[in-house]
Design goal:
This protein has helices spanning 16-28, 45-49, 67-77, 93-101, 111-118, 120-129, 144-158, 181-199, 255-271, 304-311, 315-323, 404-417, 427-434, 437-440, 448-451, 464-478; strands spanning 9-12, 32-38, 52-57, 81-83, 105-106, 162-166, 175-178, 204-208, 214-222, 228-240, 243-249, 276-284, 291-297, 340-347, 349-350, 356-357, 365-367, 374-378, 393-401, 419-421. The strands form 5 sheets. Strands 13-12-9-10-11-14-19-18 form an 8-stranded antiparallel sheet, with helices on both faces. Strands 3-2-1-4-5 form a 5-stranded parallel sheet. The model has no long low-confidence stretch (mean pLDDT 92). The protein is globular and about 75 Å long. It has 3 domains: 9-107, Rossmann fold; 136-208, Dna Ligase, domain 1 (2-Layer Sandwich); 214-456, ATP-grasp fold, B domain (D-amino Acid Aminotransferase, Chain A, domain 1). The chain is 35% helix and 23% strand.
Length: 485
Protein backbone atom coordinates (compact mmCIF):
# COMPACT_ATOMS: atom_id res chain seq x y z
CA UNK A 1 0.00 0.00 0.00
CA UNK A 2 1.13 3.56 -0.60
CA UNK A 3 1.99 6.02 2.15
CA UNK A 4 -1.19 7.24 3.90
CA UNK A 5 -0.07 10.88 4.01
CA UNK A 6 -1.74 12.93 1.29
CA UNK A 7 0.67 14.24 -1.32
CA UNK A 8 1.25 17.98 -1.48
CA UNK A 9 4.85 18.31 -2.63
CA UNK A 10 6.54 16.03 -5.17
CA UNK A 11 10.25 15.73 -5.85
CA UNK A 12 11.01 14.66 -9.42
CA UNK A 13 14.05 12.38 -9.26
CA UNK A 14 15.00 12.77 -12.91
CA UNK A 15 16.13 15.24 -15.54
CA UNK A 16 15.44 16.37 -19.10
CA UNK A 17 12.14 16.17 -20.92
CA UNK A 18 10.57 13.62 -18.58
CA UNK A 19 11.28 15.81 -15.54
CA UNK A 20 9.60 18.74 -17.28
CA UNK A 21 6.66 16.58 -18.35
CA UNK A 22 6.06 15.39 -14.75
CA UNK A 23 6.47 18.90 -13.33
CA UNK A 24 3.69 20.19 -15.59
CA UNK A 25 1.19 17.63 -14.27
CA UNK A 26 2.27 18.19 -10.65
CA UNK A 27 1.53 21.90 -11.04
CA UNK A 28 -1.79 21.21 -12.78
CA UNK A 29 -2.84 19.28 -9.68
CA UNK A 30 -2.06 22.31 -7.52
CA UNK A 31 0.89 20.56 -5.89
CA UNK A 32 4.44 21.87 -5.43
CA UNK A 33 7.10 20.56 -7.83
CA UNK A 34 10.71 20.12 -6.70
CA UNK A 35 13.49 19.36 -9.18
CA UNK A 36 16.98 18.07 -8.47
CA UNK A 37 19.95 18.68 -10.73
CA UNK A 38 23.63 17.95 -11.24
CA UNK A 39 26.12 20.62 -12.28
CA UNK A 40 25.94 19.89 -16.05
CA UNK A 41 22.18 20.58 -15.85
CA UNK A 42 22.57 23.94 -14.08
CA UNK A 43 20.93 25.81 -16.96
CA UNK A 44 18.46 23.12 -17.96
CA UNK A 45 14.90 24.03 -18.92
CA UNK A 46 13.22 21.70 -16.42
CA UNK A 47 14.74 23.61 -13.49
CA UNK A 48 13.06 26.84 -14.60
CA UNK A 49 9.61 25.27 -14.48
CA UNK A 50 9.93 23.71 -11.01
CA UNK A 51 8.79 25.59 -7.91
CA UNK A 52 12.03 24.64 -6.17
CA UNK A 53 15.35 23.28 -7.43
CA UNK A 54 17.99 21.52 -5.35
CA UNK A 55 21.59 20.99 -6.42
CA UNK A 56 22.63 17.41 -5.65
CA UNK A 57 26.23 17.20 -6.89
CA UNK A 58 28.83 17.58 -9.59
CA UNK A 59 27.64 14.53 -11.55
CA UNK A 60 27.38 13.47 -14.20
CA UNK A 61 24.74 10.75 -13.68
CA UNK A 62 26.14 9.45 -10.38
CA UNK A 63 24.09 11.84 -8.21
CA UNK A 64 20.86 11.09 -10.07
CA UNK A 65 21.60 7.45 -9.16
CA UNK A 66 22.46 8.15 -5.51
CA UNK A 67 19.53 7.02 -3.34
CA UNK A 68 20.83 8.74 -0.20
CA UNK A 69 21.37 11.98 -2.07
CA UNK A 70 17.85 11.97 -3.53
CA UNK A 71 16.31 11.23 -0.13
CA UNK A 72 18.41 14.06 1.36
CA UNK A 73 16.95 16.42 -1.23
CA UNK A 74 13.44 15.22 -0.41
CA UNK A 75 13.98 15.84 3.29
CA UNK A 76 15.39 19.35 3.01
CA UNK A 77 12.71 20.36 0.50
CA UNK A 78 9.89 18.91 2.59
CA UNK A 79 8.68 16.72 -0.27
CA UNK A 80 6.27 14.02 0.80
CA UNK A 81 6.48 12.04 -2.46
CA UNK A 82 9.01 11.20 -5.17
CA UNK A 83 8.30 10.53 -8.83
CA UNK A 84 11.23 8.67 -10.43
CA UNK A 85 10.29 9.19 -14.11
CA UNK A 86 12.03 6.60 -16.28
CA UNK A 87 15.64 5.47 -16.31
CA UNK A 88 17.98 6.24 -13.39
CA UNK A 89 16.33 4.91 -10.18
CA UNK A 90 12.85 4.29 -11.60
CA UNK A 91 13.09 0.47 -11.58
CA UNK A 92 15.36 0.13 -8.56
CA UNK A 93 13.53 -1.80 -5.80
CA UNK A 94 16.03 -0.54 -3.21
CA UNK A 95 14.97 3.03 -4.01
CA UNK A 96 11.27 2.20 -3.63
CA UNK A 97 12.05 0.45 -0.35
CA UNK A 98 14.21 3.33 0.91
CA UNK A 99 11.39 5.79 0.22
CA UNK A 100 8.97 3.53 2.08
CA UNK A 101 11.28 3.36 5.12
CA UNK A 102 11.79 7.14 5.06
CA UNK A 103 8.02 7.75 5.09
CA UNK A 104 8.11 9.23 1.59
CA UNK A 105 5.49 8.16 -0.95
CA UNK A 106 7.15 6.46 -3.93
CA UNK A 107 5.03 7.11 -7.02
CA UNK A 108 5.38 3.67 -8.51
CA UNK A 109 5.05 -0.01 -7.57
CA UNK A 110 6.00 -1.52 -4.19
CA UNK A 111 9.61 -2.73 -3.86
CA UNK A 112 8.76 -6.44 -3.90
CA UNK A 113 6.82 -6.06 -7.16
CA UNK A 114 9.69 -4.19 -8.81
CA UNK A 115 12.15 -6.79 -7.51
CA UNK A 116 10.12 -9.71 -8.87
CA UNK A 117 9.38 -8.21 -12.27
CA UNK A 118 12.90 -6.86 -12.83
CA UNK A 119 14.18 -10.43 -12.64
CA UNK A 120 13.24 -11.82 -16.03
CA UNK A 121 13.29 -15.44 -14.84
CA UNK A 122 11.08 -14.73 -11.80
CA UNK A 123 8.71 -12.71 -14.00
CA UNK A 124 8.39 -15.61 -16.43
CA UNK A 125 7.48 -17.86 -13.50
CA UNK A 126 4.72 -15.46 -12.43
CA UNK A 127 3.31 -15.42 -15.95
CA UNK A 128 3.50 -19.19 -16.25
CA UNK A 129 1.40 -19.61 -13.08
CA UNK A 130 -1.11 -17.12 -14.51
CA UNK A 131 -1.43 -19.15 -17.70
CA UNK A 132 -0.03 -16.38 -19.89
CA UNK A 133 1.85 -17.61 -22.98
CA UNK A 134 5.57 -16.98 -22.83
CA UNK A 135 8.57 -17.80 -24.99
CA UNK A 136 10.28 -21.09 -24.09
CA UNK A 137 13.41 -20.43 -22.06
CA UNK A 138 15.71 -21.73 -19.34
CA UNK A 139 16.00 -20.70 -15.73
CA UNK A 140 19.20 -18.87 -14.72
CA UNK A 141 22.15 -20.78 -16.14
CA UNK A 142 24.48 -22.35 -13.62
CA UNK A 143 28.01 -20.95 -13.36
CA UNK A 144 30.79 -22.42 -15.49
CA UNK A 145 30.56 -25.58 -17.60
CA UNK A 146 27.24 -26.64 -16.04
CA UNK A 147 25.58 -23.55 -17.46
CA UNK A 148 27.00 -24.21 -20.90
CA UNK A 149 25.65 -27.79 -20.80
CA UNK A 150 22.20 -26.51 -19.75
CA UNK A 151 22.16 -24.03 -22.63
CA UNK A 152 23.28 -26.66 -25.14
CA UNK A 153 20.55 -29.04 -23.99
CA UNK A 154 17.97 -26.28 -24.47
CA UNK A 155 19.38 -25.52 -27.95
CA UNK A 156 19.15 -29.20 -28.88
CA UNK A 157 15.44 -29.17 -28.08
CA UNK A 158 14.42 -25.76 -29.42
CA UNK A 159 16.99 -25.17 -32.20
CA UNK A 160 18.72 -21.97 -33.22
CA UNK A 161 18.50 -18.99 -33.30
CA UNK A 162 18.37 -18.31 -29.57
CA UNK A 163 18.48 -15.18 -27.43
CA UNK A 164 21.00 -14.99 -24.57
CA UNK A 165 19.73 -12.49 -22.01
CA UNK A 166 20.80 -10.94 -18.72
CA UNK A 167 18.30 -11.89 -16.01
CA UNK A 168 18.48 -8.40 -14.52
CA UNK A 169 18.67 -6.63 -17.88
CA UNK A 170 16.33 -4.03 -19.30
CA UNK A 171 15.94 -1.23 -21.81
CA UNK A 172 17.24 -3.43 -24.62
CA UNK A 173 20.59 -4.03 -22.90
CA UNK A 174 22.14 -7.39 -22.11
CA UNK A 175 20.70 -9.20 -25.14
CA UNK A 176 22.64 -11.31 -27.66
CA UNK A 177 21.34 -13.28 -30.63
CA UNK A 178 22.95 -16.71 -30.96
CA UNK A 179 22.88 -18.57 -34.28
CA UNK A 180 24.99 -21.70 -33.66
CA UNK A 181 26.65 -23.92 -31.04
CA UNK A 182 30.06 -22.26 -31.30
CA UNK A 183 28.57 -18.83 -30.65
CA UNK A 184 26.60 -20.11 -27.68
CA UNK A 185 29.64 -21.67 -25.99
CA UNK A 186 31.73 -18.54 -26.59
CA UNK A 187 29.10 -15.97 -25.65
CA UNK A 188 27.87 -17.35 -22.31
CA UNK A 189 30.93 -16.31 -20.25
CA UNK A 190 31.12 -13.00 -22.13
CA UNK A 191 27.43 -12.34 -21.46
CA UNK A 192 27.88 -13.12 -17.76
CA UNK A 193 30.80 -10.69 -17.52
CA UNK A 194 28.84 -8.01 -19.38
CA UNK A 195 25.80 -8.50 -17.13
CA UNK A 196 27.97 -8.20 -14.04
CA UNK A 197 29.45 -4.95 -15.32
CA UNK A 198 26.15 -3.42 -16.49
CA UNK A 199 23.75 -4.65 -13.79
CA UNK A 200 26.02 -5.90 -10.98
CA UNK A 201 24.36 -9.29 -11.52
CA UNK A 202 25.98 -11.97 -13.68
CA UNK A 203 22.94 -14.24 -14.12
CA UNK A 204 21.91 -15.00 -17.68
CA UNK A 205 19.38 -17.28 -19.33
CA UNK A 206 18.55 -18.53 -22.82
CA UNK A 207 15.24 -18.31 -24.64
CA UNK A 208 13.96 -19.25 -28.07
CA UNK A 209 14.39 -16.49 -30.66
CA UNK A 210 11.17 -15.52 -32.42
CA UNK A 211 12.27 -14.55 -35.93
CA UNK A 212 11.19 -11.12 -37.19
CA UNK A 213 8.38 -10.59 -34.65
CA UNK A 214 6.46 -7.44 -33.87
CA UNK A 215 7.06 -5.81 -30.49
CA UNK A 216 3.68 -4.93 -28.98
CA UNK A 217 3.07 -3.55 -25.51
CA UNK A 218 0.01 -2.80 -23.39
CA UNK A 219 -0.31 0.19 -21.07
CA UNK A 220 -1.58 -0.80 -17.62
CA UNK A 221 -2.94 1.17 -14.67
CA UNK A 222 -3.58 -0.50 -11.30
CA UNK A 223 -4.59 0.89 -7.92
CA UNK A 224 -4.60 -0.33 -4.32
CA UNK A 225 -8.31 -1.17 -4.45
CA UNK A 226 -8.06 -4.09 -6.86
CA UNK A 227 -8.76 -2.15 -10.04
CA UNK A 228 -6.54 -3.11 -12.97
CA UNK A 229 -7.25 -1.75 -16.43
CA UNK A 230 -5.50 -1.27 -19.75
CA UNK A 231 -5.25 1.72 -22.09
CA UNK A 232 -4.76 -0.26 -25.28
CA UNK A 233 -1.72 -1.31 -27.29
CA UNK A 234 1.41 0.22 -28.78
CA UNK A 235 3.63 -1.13 -31.56
CA UNK A 236 7.31 -0.51 -30.81
CA UNK A 237 8.80 -2.72 -33.52
CA UNK A 238 11.00 -0.15 -35.27
CA UNK A 239 14.21 -0.43 -33.24
CA UNK A 240 17.97 -0.42 -33.48
CA UNK A 241 19.91 -2.81 -31.26
CA UNK A 242 16.72 -3.50 -29.28
CA UNK A 243 16.30 0.24 -28.57
CA UNK A 244 12.98 1.76 -29.69
CA UNK A 245 13.03 4.57 -32.26
CA UNK A 246 9.42 5.08 -33.27
CA UNK A 247 6.20 3.98 -31.58
CA UNK A 248 2.64 3.61 -32.87
CA UNK A 249 -0.69 3.36 -31.05
CA UNK A 250 -2.75 1.35 -31.25
CA UNK A 251 -0.92 -1.66 -32.71
CA UNK A 252 -2.51 -2.95 -35.91
CA UNK A 253 -4.02 -6.24 -34.73
CA UNK A 254 -7.23 -8.15 -35.50
CA UNK A 255 -9.91 -7.22 -32.95
CA UNK A 256 -9.96 -10.59 -31.22
CA UNK A 257 -6.15 -10.67 -30.93
CA UNK A 258 -6.04 -7.14 -29.52
CA UNK A 259 -8.66 -8.11 -26.95
CA UNK A 260 -6.75 -11.25 -25.93
CA UNK A 261 -3.39 -9.48 -25.61
CA UNK A 262 -4.94 -6.72 -23.49
CA UNK A 263 -6.66 -9.31 -21.27
CA UNK A 264 -3.34 -11.14 -20.86
CA UNK A 265 -1.67 -7.88 -19.83
CA UNK A 266 -4.34 -7.18 -17.21
CA UNK A 267 -3.98 -10.74 -15.88
CA UNK A 268 -0.19 -10.30 -15.76
CA UNK A 269 -0.46 -7.11 -13.70
CA UNK A 270 -3.08 -8.59 -11.39
CA UNK A 271 -1.05 -11.75 -10.73
CA UNK A 272 2.07 -9.67 -10.04
CA UNK A 273 0.22 -7.60 -7.42
CA UNK A 274 0.93 -4.51 -9.49
CA UNK A 275 0.22 -0.88 -8.54
CA UNK A 276 0.72 2.35 -10.55
CA UNK A 277 1.38 2.66 -14.29
CA UNK A 278 3.25 -0.14 -16.03
CA UNK A 279 3.73 -1.77 -19.40
CA UNK A 280 3.43 -5.43 -20.33
CA UNK A 281 5.49 -6.26 -23.42
CA UNK A 282 4.83 -9.07 -25.89
CA UNK A 283 6.36 -10.47 -29.06
CA UNK A 284 3.81 -11.13 -31.81
CA UNK A 285 4.29 -13.47 -34.76
CA UNK A 286 3.88 -11.25 -37.83
CA UNK A 287 2.15 -13.97 -39.88
CA UNK A 288 -0.02 -15.80 -37.33
CA UNK A 289 -0.54 -13.08 -34.66
CA UNK A 290 0.37 -15.62 -31.98
CA UNK A 291 1.84 -13.72 -29.02
CA UNK A 292 4.15 -14.40 -26.07
CA UNK A 293 4.92 -12.50 -22.87
CA UNK A 294 8.36 -10.89 -22.95
CA UNK A 295 8.67 -8.64 -19.87
CA UNK A 296 6.92 -6.07 -17.73
CA UNK A 297 8.33 -2.58 -17.24
CA UNK A 298 7.59 -1.21 -13.78
CA UNK A 299 7.68 2.47 -14.67
CA UNK A 300 6.43 5.17 -16.99
CA UNK A 301 7.51 4.51 -20.58
CA UNK A 302 9.19 7.01 -22.89
CA UNK A 303 6.40 6.34 -25.40
CA UNK A 304 3.48 6.90 -23.02
CA UNK A 305 2.57 10.01 -25.03
CA UNK A 306 1.07 8.03 -27.95
CA UNK A 307 -1.40 6.43 -25.56
CA UNK A 308 -2.19 9.77 -23.92
CA UNK A 309 -3.05 11.54 -27.17
CA UNK A 310 -5.45 8.74 -28.19
CA UNK A 311 -7.16 8.20 -24.84
CA UNK A 312 -7.05 11.68 -23.32
CA UNK A 313 -5.72 10.08 -20.12
CA UNK A 314 -2.85 11.84 -18.32
CA UNK A 315 -0.92 8.76 -17.18
CA UNK A 316 1.34 10.74 -14.83
CA UNK A 317 -1.75 12.27 -13.19
CA UNK A 318 -3.19 8.79 -12.67
CA UNK A 319 0.12 7.63 -11.13
CA UNK A 320 -0.04 10.46 -8.61
CA UNK A 321 -3.71 9.85 -7.82
CA UNK A 322 -3.05 6.13 -7.29
CA UNK A 323 -0.14 6.95 -4.95
CA UNK A 324 -2.53 9.28 -3.12
CA UNK A 325 -4.78 6.31 -2.38
CA UNK A 326 -7.55 7.10 -4.85
CA UNK A 327 -9.42 4.45 -6.79
CA UNK A 328 -9.23 4.50 -10.57
CA UNK A 329 -12.51 5.74 -11.99
CA UNK A 330 -11.68 5.65 -15.69
CA UNK A 331 -13.93 3.70 -18.01
CA UNK A 332 -11.73 1.00 -19.55
CA UNK A 333 -10.51 2.08 -22.96
CA UNK A 334 -11.22 -0.47 -25.71
CA UNK A 335 -8.35 -1.81 -27.79
CA UNK A 336 -9.90 -0.30 -30.93
CA UNK A 337 -9.29 3.39 -30.27
CA UNK A 338 -10.21 6.19 -32.64
CA UNK A 339 -7.39 7.16 -34.97
CA UNK A 340 -3.66 6.50 -34.95
CA UNK A 341 -0.75 8.14 -33.17
CA UNK A 342 2.99 8.01 -33.86
CA UNK A 343 5.82 9.17 -31.61
CA UNK A 344 9.32 9.86 -32.91
CA UNK A 345 12.33 10.56 -30.69
CA UNK A 346 14.20 13.50 -32.18
CA UNK A 347 17.76 13.06 -30.96
CA UNK A 348 20.92 15.04 -31.59
CA UNK A 349 22.49 12.09 -33.39
CA UNK A 350 23.88 11.22 -36.80
CA UNK A 351 21.95 8.16 -38.04
CA UNK A 352 24.41 7.68 -40.92
CA UNK A 353 27.26 7.39 -38.46
CA UNK A 354 25.77 4.61 -36.32
CA UNK A 355 23.59 7.20 -34.54
CA UNK A 356 26.64 8.90 -33.07
CA UNK A 357 25.57 11.56 -30.49
CA UNK A 358 26.23 15.21 -31.34
CA UNK A 359 27.09 16.20 -27.76
CA UNK A 360 28.69 19.60 -27.23
CA UNK A 361 27.04 21.27 -30.23
CA UNK A 362 24.74 24.25 -29.86
CA UNK A 363 21.28 24.67 -31.35
CA UNK A 364 21.60 27.82 -33.46
CA UNK A 365 18.00 27.78 -34.69
CA UNK A 366 15.00 26.01 -33.17
CA UNK A 367 11.65 26.33 -34.92
CA UNK A 368 9.06 23.76 -33.88
CA UNK A 369 5.97 22.68 -35.82
CA UNK A 370 2.37 23.15 -34.74
CA UNK A 371 -1.14 22.68 -36.05
CA UNK A 372 -3.70 19.91 -35.62
CA UNK A 373 -2.66 16.71 -33.90
CA UNK A 374 0.88 17.75 -32.86
CA UNK A 375 2.33 17.29 -29.36
CA UNK A 376 5.89 18.16 -28.34
CA UNK A 377 7.68 17.03 -25.17
CA UNK A 378 11.20 18.40 -25.13
CA UNK A 379 13.94 20.47 -23.58
CA UNK A 380 15.63 22.08 -26.59
CA UNK A 381 15.48 25.77 -27.51
CA UNK A 382 17.50 28.24 -29.53
CA UNK A 383 20.90 28.44 -27.84
CA UNK A 384 20.54 25.03 -26.15
CA UNK A 385 23.81 23.13 -25.89
CA UNK A 386 23.52 19.38 -26.42
CA UNK A 387 24.99 17.73 -23.31
CA UNK A 388 27.88 15.33 -23.67
CA UNK A 389 27.17 13.82 -20.25
CA UNK A 390 23.60 12.58 -20.80
CA UNK A 391 21.40 11.17 -23.54
CA UNK A 392 20.94 13.15 -26.74
CA UNK A 393 17.13 13.39 -26.76
CA UNK A 394 16.00 16.87 -27.77
CA UNK A 395 12.26 16.42 -28.11
CA UNK A 396 9.64 13.73 -28.50
CA UNK A 397 7.09 14.57 -31.18
CA UNK A 398 3.75 12.78 -31.15
CA UNK A 399 1.24 13.18 -33.98
CA UNK A 400 -2.33 11.95 -34.25
CA UNK A 401 -4.63 11.47 -37.22
CA UNK A 402 -7.95 9.78 -37.91
CA UNK A 403 -6.31 6.91 -39.78
CA UNK A 404 -2.85 5.62 -40.68
CA UNK A 405 -2.58 7.52 -43.97
CA UNK A 406 -3.45 10.88 -42.43
CA UNK A 407 -1.15 10.27 -39.45
CA UNK A 408 1.85 9.53 -41.70
CA UNK A 409 1.02 12.59 -43.80
CA UNK A 410 0.83 14.70 -40.65
CA UNK A 411 4.11 13.29 -39.37
CA UNK A 412 5.83 14.07 -42.68
CA UNK A 413 4.48 17.62 -42.67
CA UNK A 414 5.50 18.21 -39.05
CA UNK A 415 9.02 16.85 -39.65
CA UNK A 416 9.42 19.13 -42.67
CA UNK A 417 8.26 22.08 -40.55
CA UNK A 418 10.64 21.17 -37.71
CA UNK A 419 13.86 23.16 -38.04
CA UNK A 420 16.86 22.48 -35.83
CA UNK A 421 20.14 24.03 -36.99
CA UNK A 422 23.44 23.16 -35.32
CA UNK A 423 23.67 19.48 -34.40
CA UNK A 424 22.70 16.73 -36.78
CA UNK A 425 19.39 15.19 -35.78
CA UNK A 426 17.21 12.19 -36.56
CA UNK A 427 14.65 14.38 -38.39
CA UNK A 428 15.83 13.51 -41.96
CA UNK A 429 16.01 9.84 -40.96
CA UNK A 430 12.35 9.86 -39.93
CA UNK A 431 11.42 11.75 -43.10
CA UNK A 432 13.07 8.98 -45.08
CA UNK A 433 11.00 6.39 -43.18
CA UNK A 434 7.81 8.35 -43.97
CA UNK A 435 8.52 7.91 -47.69
CA UNK A 436 9.32 4.19 -47.48
CA UNK A 437 6.58 2.03 -49.03
CA UNK A 438 6.24 -0.63 -46.33
CA UNK A 439 5.99 2.00 -43.61
CA UNK A 440 3.39 3.91 -45.63
CA UNK A 441 1.40 0.65 -45.73
CA UNK A 442 1.86 0.13 -41.98
CA UNK A 443 3.94 -3.02 -42.47
CA UNK A 444 6.97 -3.37 -40.17
CA UNK A 445 8.54 -5.67 -37.58
CA UNK A 446 11.69 -5.71 -35.45
CA UNK A 447 13.86 -6.35 -38.52
CA UNK A 448 12.61 -3.19 -40.28
CA UNK A 449 15.95 -1.33 -40.31
CA UNK A 450 17.86 -4.38 -41.58
CA UNK A 451 15.30 -4.94 -44.35
CA UNK A 452 15.33 -1.29 -45.46
CA UNK A 453 18.93 -0.01 -45.50
CA UNK A 454 17.91 2.51 -48.17
CA UNK A 455 16.27 4.72 -45.55
CA UNK A 456 19.76 5.80 -44.51
CA UNK A 457 20.40 7.23 -48.01
CA UNK A 458 18.65 10.53 -47.35
CA UNK A 459 20.29 13.74 -48.68
CA UNK A 460 22.72 15.59 -46.42
CA UNK A 461 22.52 19.00 -48.01
CA UNK A 462 21.21 21.81 -45.85
CA UNK A 463 17.85 23.22 -46.79
CA UNK A 464 17.68 26.82 -47.95
CA UNK A 465 15.27 27.59 -45.12
CA UNK A 466 17.89 26.42 -42.63
CA UNK A 467 20.45 28.76 -44.15
CA UNK A 468 17.95 31.62 -44.02
CA UNK A 469 17.03 30.86 -40.41
CA UNK A 470 20.69 30.81 -39.38
CA UNK A 471 21.14 34.21 -40.99
CA UNK A 472 18.08 35.55 -39.18
CA UNK A 473 19.39 34.24 -35.87
CA UNK A 474 22.77 35.90 -36.51
CA UNK A 475 21.10 39.21 -37.36
CA UNK A 476 18.98 38.98 -34.22
CA UNK A 477 21.99 38.20 -32.02
CA UNK A 478 24.37 40.80 -33.47
CA UNK A 479 21.73 43.45 -34.27
CA UNK A 480 23.37 43.82 -37.67
CA UNK A 481 23.13 42.10 -41.05
CA UNK A 482 26.67 40.93 -41.87
CA UNK A 483 25.75 40.63 -45.54
CA UNK A 484 24.10 44.07 -45.98
CA UNK A 485 26.80 45.81 -47.99
Amino acid sequence: MGNNKKIKKILVANRGEIALRIIRTVKELGMTAVSVYEKPDSNALFIRFADQAIFIGEGPRKDYLDIDRILWAARISGADAIHPGYGFLSENPDFSEACEKAGINFIGPPPDVIRNLSDKVVARGIMEKAGIPFIPGTTDLSPGDDGVREALAFAEKHRYPLMLKASAGGGGRGIRKITNKEELVAQIPAAMAEAKSAFNDDRVYVEKCITEPRHVEVQILADDHGTVLHLGTRDCSIQRRHQKLLEVAPAELPGDVAEKICEAAVDAARNAGYRSAGTVEFLVDSSTNEFWFMEMNTRLQVEHTVTEVLTGVDIVREQIEIANGKQLNLAEVPCEMLGKAIQVRINAEDPKNNFMPEGGKQVAVYQSPGGPGIRLDGIAYQGYKVPTEYDSLLVKMTVRGYNWEQTVQRLRRALNDFLIVGPKTTIPFYLSICDERDFMRGVFDTSYLEKHPEIFDYPDREREVAKLSRLMAEIHAKKINPYAY
